[in-house]
Write a structure and sequence with these properties.
Structural class of chain A: alpha/beta
Order of helices and strands of chain B: EEEHEEHEHHHEHEHEEHH
Oligomer: heterodimer
Radius of gyration of chain B: 18 Å
Number of strands of chain A: 5
Largest sheet of chain A: 5 strands, mixed
Mean pLDDT of chain A: 84
Strand order of the largest sheet of chain A: 2-1-3-4-5
Number of helices of chain B: 9
Number of strands of chain B: 10
Bound molecules: adenosine-5'-triphosphate, magnesium ion
Largest interface: A-B, 26 and 37 residues
Largest sheet of chain B: 6 strands, mixed
Strand order of the largest sheet of chain B: 6-7-8-3-9-10
Distance between the termini of chain A: 21 Å
Number of helices of chain A: 14
Mean pLDDT of chain B: 87
Strand content of chain A: 5-15%
Chain lengths: 338, 244
Amino acid sequence: MRVKAITVRIIKQFFHDKRTLAMMLVAPLLILTIISLVFNGEDSVPSIGIEQVPEPVKELLKEQKITVSEMDQGDAEQKFREGSLDAWITLEDNQPRIVLEGSDPGTNQMVLNIVQQAIQSPGQKIKPDVEYFYGTEGMTSFDNFGPVLIGFFAFFFVFLIAGVSFLRERTGGTLERLMGSPVKKSEIVIGYLLGFGFFTLIQSTLIVIYSIYVLDLLMIGDFIWVLAVTLLCAFTALSLGTLLSTYAHNELQIIQFIPIVIVPQVFFSGLFDLEAISDWVSWIGPITPLYYAADALRDVMIRGLGFEEIAINLAVLFGFSLLFSAANILALRKYRSF
Amino acid sequence: MDNTMVIELTDLTKAFGSTTVIKKTSLEVQNGEIFGMLGPSGAGKTTLVKMIAGIEKPTSGELRLFNKKMPSHRLIRQIGYMAQTDGLYHDLTGIENLKFFSAMYGMKGKKQKERMEEVLELVDLTAYKQKVVRNYSGGMKRRLSLAVALLHEPKLILLDEPTVGIDPVLRQSIWNELYKLKEKGMTILVTTHVMDEADKCDRLAMVREGAIIAVGSPDSLKEETKSETIEEVFLYHGGGKYEG
Ligand SMILES: Nc1ncnc2c1ncn2[C@@H]1O[C@H](COP(=O)(O)OP(=O)(O)OP(=O)(O)O)[C@@H](O)[C@H]1O
Ligand SMILES: [Mg+2]
């Protein structure tokens, strides 16, 4: 009853504040479009598995800036699933066969170039068979990091708007009035989750549909799982945003959370090559929500994986939301004597 | 007017960190009176009212409302609190604000609708109920804030400077409303800076630097100190100049 009233109120406030509504719904689409237009690939050190490759070729490969190790196809596929291998090369009937992990177009291209150089002998044109374990040949870099961006925008805008809304509730004295009424602290937190959840649902749907159908982002898996991950990601952002707003005195201080809370998450979400990150900071990734959202989104959109494979990520995101919401309820105790 | 105590403070103190804002304070407010709290800025009026409203936790001492110990979830329903800040959703209309806050008190349906119209009538905002609060004048916001505090028909009303930013004519009409509410048996606690408002209260507490320096009816306070005005009474008790 009261939860419903809070939910409805938040929805109404959004409709009265058209600009914030527009920022939440249109801004992500705009930025995604721009990025899809301007992006260029980047470098990393690919790791390649080989089996029954002639010595001279092996030597040539080892001279390149790559890591090479011997393994059979079964091992390679296992490693593809773990995400620890970029390609596997073998020789069948004197014909080279390359299996690419496939989800990062930049890496795909680099591996192909290196292998081409290694197997090419003068006067003889050899064309290897190329297969993709995940993804497809026509995949662009945008296809690779697009899923991460979907998660990021859901997180970023909800974090910001929820943080500011809750801050206003505090500075405008409405929280005080609520605290002087019989409403329960948990009802406030749940009401917020549902009210924002409504817009988050619209936002996520819009972002996902726009990315897939207008920007032509690669999408192999199920739409519903993309939506589920995005929504949970936004819930995490919502509960974190409202929690942190407790420690801000004004809107500017909410903005100050961006370099502290948002930017580091971006670095570890897979937008940049995770393997290239130094060991002494790499532990940060697994404690940030976006890391799990991005990983799950990639699994679904590029690798076509389903619920079973992303269940852990979903659970972790759900756990984050739960943790932050509980902390929120505790933090609200500051504003009431009972 | 029966003489049961609506508010009883016993040795109440409040400290923020190491600064004591309310020194050991005891106070009794009787059923059905308009009780005023007069004091300069920073005296601790808001802090006292917030503790009574259950928003701020006292550091020590006892607080009882209607002979029951605070804090209590049930007592909260009996209190209507109008804070010094308006506490309204500026991007909602007047009626949407009322609808929301009445829902917080579990009101619904026909009763809710009737009550919303009643309080709007009371504060003279019926014509503006569909307007977004952002476009209200300062006085209109104050009145809507008062309307919200009265929505759930509380038995005790706490008003923190209800007439700030309100013109003299409207101020008089708000005081007339307070008298009407009093006649209905409500107890009203009102804080103010303004001396002539203090004269309108049944009884009065003078607050200064976190302590109550005098309590009594305006007339008896004047008599005791052989003063003509409330201002003189304040000067008599407080020493220094009044900087309200
Ligand atoms: N949250 C807080 N933390 C620290 N000090 C506070 C806090 N709230 C109030 N104070 C201090 O308590 C004292 C009393 O403040 P209070 O707001 O109760 O005064 P007031 O009598 O209502 O003043 P005014 O008439 O200006 O509203 C002030 O010195 C103020 O600085
Ligand atoms: Mg005050």
